[in-house]
Design goal:
Length: 572
C-alpha cells in the first residue's frame, strides 16, 4: 500500500476553468462579506476556511478552449464592476455584426433572418484561456490557493461520501514502475469537493457511475474542432460573428460551424476563430470530424475569411449537449458538480461560459451555507440544486432542453423540432416535454450495413495541404501539446483484443477516424487475425475525450496523465 501525504482543506475545487474559478472567487467574496458583518456587529463567528483549487494543466488556461462568444450575463453576476475595473478582462471584441449561412459544397447563401438563438449583438468574443488566466489572478489576490500541474486521479471516498481528491502519481515509467523522481500523489482531504473538470471529467464519470447519478437521458456530446488564424486587416473585422449550417455534414449528422472576428495583432492584422462542431451521435463509422473541418475551410464562403492568412493555433474539445434531461444529480454527501461537468451548456446558442460562471457562483453559495452550518452532507448540499432550479440559469436550460435530441432523426426533423421549441417554451415536436435520447456511440453503425456491404470508402487527399488545410499532426503541433513520453498510457483500453478482431470487422476501427489528434493508429501486424494491431500515440492527445465518448464498445477509459501534460492553448 503506497503511503500518501494528506493535506487538509475545507473546500477542494477541481478544475481551473470558468466554473471552478467562479466558485473560488464568489466563495471568498461571501466569506469576506460575512466576516466584515461579524466584525461590525460583534455577533456571530468569523469563518476562515482553507480553499484550494487544482488544475491538471501546467498553468491555468492552457487546457481552456471554447466557442468563445460569451454572454456577459454570467460575468455581470460574478463581477458587476468588470467594465470599470483597473484590471479589465481580456476581451477580444464586442459583437456588432452577426448573421447565419446555409452552406452547400460549392458555396452557400445568407439566411434571410438570423435564428434567435444565434443573435449575438452585445455579447463578447473572448479567448477563453486568456479569460480564465485573468480570473485566476483575481482568485489568487483573494487568497485562494491554486495548484496548476496537479491532476486529480480519483476521488477519496468513505462509502458514498466524497472526502477529497487523490492526486495522480508522478515519476512512473511506461511500464508502471517508479522512476528515480517518483512521488506518490497526495490526498487533498476536503469537507466539500466541487468538481469542475470540464466535459466528460474523469473523476465526475467515476462518481456518476458509482453513485448512479445519471440523468433521465444519457449525456450526448459534440466535438468542436477549431483554429485561430491571422489574416489581413479588414478581412474579418473584430466583432463579426458568422454561424453556419449544412455542408460539410450530411443530412443525418448534427453540427454547424462558426467564424468569429477576434482582436487585432500588434502588426495590424486581424485574428479569426474558425471552427466546426460535429455531433458525437453520428452514424458513419468512417466519419472524421477533423477532416470535415478541413473541408469546411475549402468552402468559398469560409475561404474568403482566411485567404492570405496564416494558421496560428489549433484545438479540439468535446461539448456536453444533452441538455437538462441529461444532467446528472448535482449534489451529494461532500460534493457538488458545476460547469461542463454538470452538463451545463446551451447547445442551441453554442454557449456555456456564462452558465459555468453562474453555476460556480451557486456552488459557492451552497458551500458557504455548508461552512456556516458545519454540515457537508446531502441534507445541506441539496441547497445547490434548489438554487439552480430557482435561477435564470435553469430557465435558459429549460428553453433548450430538447434541442440536440431532435437531430437524432436527421437535420430536417431537428430544424422542425427546434422551431417548435422556440414557439412552445422548449417543448419538443408534438408538444413532448422530454424527447428521449440514447448515448451517442449507440448511433454508430457497423461498416457492412452502413456501406451496403461494399466496404469502407477511401478518403481522397485534401487539396492545398499546408496552406488552407492541414493534417492532424500539423494541427497537433500548433496546439502546443506536450506529454512526458515515459509514463503509463493515460488512454486505457480495457479489452485491447477487440481492436484487432471484432472492431476491424464490425466498425473498421473508428478510433483512427474520430480522434482529432492522430492518437489511434492501426499498424500492420503479421500473424494476427486481420493483420493489424492498435498503436496508441498518447503524446498527441489534446484531452478532448472523444475516444472515451465515441468508442462503440466503451472500452477506452481516459484518465489524467502526469501533471502538466496536454495542450498549451493560446487564443482559443
Amino acid at each position: 500500500m503506497t503511503e500518501r501525504d494528506v493535506m487538509e482543506f475545507d473546500v477542494v475545487i477541481v478544475g481551473g476553468g470558468p466554473a471552478g474559478l467562479a466558485t473560488a472567487i464568489h466563495l471568498k467574496n461571501l466569506l469576506d462579506r460575512h466576516n466584515a458583518q461579524v466584525q461590525a456587529s460583534g455577533n456571530g463567528q468569523q469563518l476562515a476556511p482553507e480553499i484550494v483549487l487544482i488544475e491538471k494543466a501546467a498553468e491555468v488556461g492552457a487546457h481552456a478552449i471554447s466557442g468563445a462568444v460569451m454572454d456577459p450575463k454570467g460575468l455581470d453576476a460574478l463581477l458587476p464592476d468588470w467594465r470599470t475595473r483597473p484590471d479589465k478582462p481580456p476581451l477580444e471584441a464586442e459583437v456588432h455584426t452577426d448573421y447565419a449561412l446555409w452552406l452547400t459544397e460549392n458555396g452557400g447563401r445568407k439566411l434571410p433572418i438570423t435564428p434567435p438563438p444565434l443573435k449575438n449583438h452585445g455579447n463578447q468574443i473572448v479567448s477563453l484561456n486568456k479569460f480564465v488566466r485573468w480570473l485566476a489572478g483575481i482568485a489568487e489576490q483573494k487568497g485562494v490557493q491554486i495548484f496548476p500541474g496537479f491532476p486529480g486521479r480519483e476521488l477519496a471516498m468513505d462509502g458514498n461520501r466524497v472526502t477529497g481528491v487523490q492526486l495522480a502519481d508522478s515519476g512512473v515509467d511506461k511500464h508502471g514502475q517508479p522512476k528515480g523522481n517518483f512521488q506518490a500523489g497526495a490526498i487533498l482531504a476536503g469537507k466539500l469537493t466541487v468538481l469542475c473538470e470540464g466535459s466528460r471529467g474523469s473523476m465526475t464519470k467515476q462518481l456518476v457511475q458509482k453513485l448512479k447519478l445519471d440523468g433521465q437521458n444519457p449525456q450526448v456530446y459534440g466535438l468542436g474542432v477549431k483554429e485561430v488564424w491571422e489574416v489581413p486587416k479588414g478581412q474579418c473585422p473584430p466583432g463579426l460573428v458568422v454561424h453556419t449550417m449544412g455542408w460539410p455534414q450530411d443530412s443525418k449528422t448534427f453540427g454547424g460551424g462558426w467564424v468569429y472576428g477576434m482582436g487585432e495583432t500588434e502588426g495590424g492584422k486581424n485574428l479569426v476563430s474558425v471552427g466546426l462542431v460535429t455531433g458525437l451521435d453520428y452514424r458513419d463509422p468512417s466519419l472524421d470530424p477533423h477532416r470535415l473541418f478541413q473541408q469546411y475551410k475549402l468552402n468559398p464562403k469560409i475561404r474568403a475569411f482566411l485567404q492570405g492568412g496564416k494558421m496560428l493555433h489549433y484545438g479540439a474539445k468535446s461539448l456536453p449537449e444533452g441538455g437538462l434531461f441529461a444532467m446528472p444529480k448535482l449534489f451529494g454527501d461532500g460534493f457538488l458538480l458545476a460547469g461542463d461537468s454538470a452538463g451545463l451548456m446551451n447547445s442551441m446558442r453554442l454557449k456555456g461560459i456564462h452558465l459555468a460562471l453562474r453555476s460556480g457562483m451557486l456552488a459557492a453559495e451552497a458551500a458557504f451555507e455548508c461552512l456556516q452550518k458545519g454540515d457537508f452532507s446531502a441534507t445541506t448540499t441539496q441547497v445547490y440544486d434548489q438554487k439552480m432550479r430557482a435561477d435564470w440559469l435553469w430557465e435558459e436550460l429549460r428553453a433548450c432542453r430538447n434541442f440536440h435530441q431532435g437531430f437524432h432523426g436527421g437535420r430536417l426533423m431537428g430544424i422542425v423540432n427546434a422551431g417548435f421549441a422556440q414557439l412552445f417554451g422548449g417543448r419538443g415536436f408534438l408538444w413532448r416535454d422530454n424527447l428521449k435520447s440514447a448515448a451517442g456511440h449507440t448511433f454508430l453503425q457497423q461498416v457492412g450495413p452502413y456501406f451496403g456491404g461494399k466496404g469502407k470508402p477511401v478518403a481522397g487527399k485534401l487539396p492545398e495541404d499546408g496552406a488552407l488545410t492541414f493534417d492532424k499532426l500539423t494541427d497537433v503541433y500548433n496546439s502546443g501539446t506536450m506529454h512526458e513520453e515515459d509514463q503509463p498510457c493515460h488512454l486505457v483500453v480495457t479489452q485491447p483484443d477487440l481492436c484487432s478482431t471484432r472492431c476491424v470487422e464490425e466498425f473498421g476501427n473508428p478510433c483512427q477516424h474520430f480522434c482529432p489528434a492522430a492518437v489511434y493508429e492501426m499498424e500492420e501486424k503479421p500473424g494476427s487475425k486481420h493483420g493489424v494491431d492498435l498503436k496508441i500515440n498518447a503524446s498527441n492527445c489534446v484531452h478532448c475525450k472523444t475516444c472515451d465518448i465515441m468508442d462503440p464498445y466503451q472500452v477506452i477509459n481516459w484518465v489524467t496523465p502526469e501533471g502538466g501534460g496536454g495542450p498549451n492553448y493560446q487564443n482559443l
